[in-house]
Design goal:
The protein is of the alpha/beta class. It is 28% helix and 35% strand. The chain has helices at 11-14, 20-34, 51-55, 68-80, 125-138, 152-161, 218-227; strands spanning 39-43, 60-65, 92-97, 109-114, 139-150, 164-167, 171-180, 185-198, 201-214, 231-237, 250-256. The strands form two sheets. Strands 3-2-1-4-5-11-10 form a seven-stranded mixed β-sheet, sandwiched between helices. It has a four-stranded antiparallel β-sheet with strand order 6-7-8-9. It is globular. The two termini are 31 Å apart.
């Protein structure tokens, strides 16, 4: 995997404004409606910004990611994060390098989550179908599958609004996009300048990252989840339990086994 190597070590600084509490809030709301889990698998856990708060809230979480560098950052963050001493029982965490299309656990789990548009990194329809089937098989009966994806129109907006520039003292980037309208697939090109210490002086290392995402018709996703055996399949808009329209940026899917 070419992406999320050097990028992993500046990812949290670049993404510090991401609404991680809103993802956690959405998951908790879904669980309150459909059943509170004990065991959770997070597909595409990245640097653990959702995993770690869930662990410190008492859940037993397995964070899975394809990038060993992202997992290395997540482990380090977990070690440096104070545990919730007020809780009657802290949760537990395992970090596992696995492909979400083929993930496996020793025992079925209560819930599977995948946020921050991780599913959009699956570039073929069969990749989504494989992930949905594997997730259905990895859940207990009554278990929940929660994930978000970009609305197809979001990729159009990325193309229209580019380039994106971030300029801070320790890290900067230039981000441009190229979209394939036929596949509704977008290629993100990032040129990143990260500050490092070398012989007592600040130097800036330049490196390149390319990330490709594809958006899918939400009704097609809903049908594929149903074909895999999921019931009560619904999707909502932008962290809220409201119907998704064409102006939605993110679609949140909730499916029950």
């Amino acid at each position: 995997m070419a992406s999320y190597r050097k990028f992993a070590y500046v990812y949290d600084e670049l993404m510090e404004d991401m609404p991680y509490p809103d993802w956690i809030r959405f998951a908790r709301t879904a669980w309150e409606k459909l059943g509170m889990p004990r065991t959770v698998v997070e597909l595409g856990c990245g640097t653990g910004s959702i995993t770690i708060p869930l662990v410190n809230s008492g859940f037993d979480v397995t964070g899975m990611d394809l990038s060993p560098d992202m997992l290395a950052v997540a482990r380090r963050k977990m070690e440096q994060t104070p545990r919730g001493g007020r809780l009657l029982r802290d949760g537990s965490v395992r970090w596992v390098q696995q492909d979400m299309r083929e993930w496996v656990m020793p025992e079925p789990v209560d819930s599977v989550i995948s946020f921050c548009d991780c599913i959009n990194y699956l570039l073929e329809q069969e990749d989504l179908t494989r992930t949905f089937k594997r997730t259905f098989e990895g859940l207990k009966q009554g278990g929940t599958f929660l994930f978000d994806v970009h609305h197809p129109n979001t990729l159009k907006r990325y193309e229209e609004d580019q380039p994106f520039i971030w300029d801070e003292k320790s890290v900067s980037y230039i981000w441009t996009c190229e979209r394939d309208a036929y596949r509704n697939e977008i290629e993100h090109h990032l040129t990143i300048f990260a500050r490092e210490q070398e012989m007592g002086s600040d130097v800036y290392r330049r490196f390149e990252e390319t990330h490709v995402q594809r958006a899918y018709d939400p009704e097609w996703i809903k049908v594929e989840l149903t074909k895999c055996g999921f019931s009560q399949v619904n999707y909502y808009a932008d962290f809220e339990w409201v119907e998704a329209g064409e102006d939605a940026a993110r679609l949140f899917f909730v499916a029950v086994k």
